[in-house]
Amino acid sequence: MKKDIEYMLLALDEARKALSEGEVPVGCIIVDKNDSIISMAYNKVESNKDATHHAEVLAIRKATQVVGDWRLLGATLYTTLEPCFMCAGATILSRLKRVVYGCMDPRHGAAGSLVNLFAIDHPIHKVEIEGGVLEKEAALLLRQFFQERRKKKCLV
Questions:
Q1: CB of 54 closer than 8 Å to CB of 45
Q2: How far is Cα 62 from Cα 41, in angstroms, rounded to an integer?
Q3: Which of 14, 55, 59, 154 has its Cβ near the most Cβ atoms within 10 Å?
Q4: Average of per-residue pLDDT across 83-91
């Protein structure tokens, strides 16, 4: 659990980078089976004008380049927000061992909030899920972002 908190703190740092760039503040870290960080990313949907540029997908892409394989066997993904359908699918397909997330996403969450893709018996691979790690800190960043966004809309 101590390592989960350490890595989630780094994912929160990535989320703050997203926030500073006007992106939804979601950050992600991928750690290999030897506890070495192999990738870090944050949301770039707005800046790249691409709906697939979620922190998790970008981190998975970087990690596969680092290890030289699409299979991230034994690796753990840390993300500040519960994975959506796309990100949950990407974690399953890339054979990640584990996903640890901060706060739940009732609108798009695919690890139990809206649906649970990880609960489906996959014939080849099962991903372990752990939620609620530094949940309050992750939720606070999201609240700050959306409160600021609402303020700006009221001023226009």
A1: yes
A2: 8
A3: 55
A4: 97
